[in-house]
Design brief:
Distance between the termini: 30 Å
Radius of gyration: 17 Å
CATH class: Alpha Beta
CATH topology: Spore Coat Polysaccharide Biosynthesis Protein SpsA, Chain A
Strand content: 15-25%
Number of helices: 7
Largest sheet: 7 strands, mixed
Order of helices and strands: EHEHEHEHEHEHEH
Shape: globular
Strand order of the largest sheet: 3-2-1-4-6-5-7
Structural class: alpha/beta
Amino acid sequence: MDEKISIIIPVYNEEKIIKETLRGLIDANIKNLGEIIVVDDGSLDKTKSRVNEIKSPLIKYHKLARNLGKGAALRKGVELSSYPVIAFLDGDIGYSSKEITKLLKAIYDNRADLVIAEFPPASVKGGFGIVKNISRKGVYFFTGKNIKNPLCGQRVFRKKILSYIDIPEGFGVEVGMLIDILNHGLRVEEIPVLMTHRETKRDLKGFIHRGKELIHILTVLIKKSYQYKNPRNRR
């Protein structure tokens, strides 16, 4: 297939690593890559300058007027996108972004409607698995499907499936999208990759981040309980 790809990267204060993330994508020589859209969610650092240091006609930068959350940044990226295949990537995966080719192959081979990256085990101790376990159980409750890492932000799909789903606010975006996709009978595949990202630690900053994640995910799950009145009545 020759469907072109829009890669959307939501960022917030990623001046330290966004250049490496973009370099990985450029160096991967991705066939049919149409554009890389960096949506800056109101960064206060030098993220914009670092993006502009990568000289490529494929890269487009858009900054939101203020910090609106990951879901809003992804929605803006989709709105700005021009091509039928969409890839979501986090800004902190660095040069390992080149591993996206493994996800793209599964879409082009028509093995799945949504492909999610499966990262190697974490190299440092982070949280206690509470957020991840709640996300897994929430997805299973509403869909009957077991997904190893429903929180992973590295995913590829065809843009047309967005007509079936919502893109929720904040850090609950991946879980909310996944529930809708599975409940519409679409195929989801997790593919092992050698990607790495900034790992949150067992410190105050890490606990604050995971606390925000948990609140956003619980909010999405509560909303889904209203959307799917009879969650056991699945397709």
